[in-house]
Amino acid sequence: MKLVKVTAIWCMSCIFMNEVLKKIEKKHEKRYETIDYDFDADADEIAAYNVGEILPVYILLDDNGNELARSIGEKKKKELIEFFTSNGGF
User: Fold this and answer.
1) Helical axes 77-85 vs 12-27, angle rounded to 10°
2) 10 in a domain, yes or no?
3) Which of 9, 69, 81, 83 has its CA 20 to 30 A from that of 2?
4) 29: which DSSP letter?
């Protein structure tokens, strides 16, 4: 399983959510590899994921690269934990 993270250095929600994700990952055994993309610098790479302009975007992929689930925008910690646990990320 892979987690595709699309964030931007100018995105305050991205900065906040990355810190929340780090705290969650410390308490849970993650079952995914993380691939980080910058919204501006990696525009060609993220085009394949149909990412809009609302950030951050977290996309869980199975081992074959098929999308399992997507989270868009700032979420509460509880919502982010639910996103991962309900989709096999933890």
Assistant:
1) 60
2) yes
3) 9
4) -
pLDDT digits (tens, 9 = 90+) for 5-20: 999 999 999 999 999 9
Note whether residue 90 is domain-resident.
no
CATH code of the domain covering residue 27: 3.40.30.10
Helix (H, G, I), strand (E, B) or coil at 11: coil
Other beta carbons within 10 Å of 43: 11
Residue range 68-89, pLDDT digits in tens? 999 999 999 999 999 999 999 8
Q: Looking at the 3D structure of the chain, how many domains does it have?
A: 1
78, two tokens:
């509880």
Domain that holds residue 58: 2-85
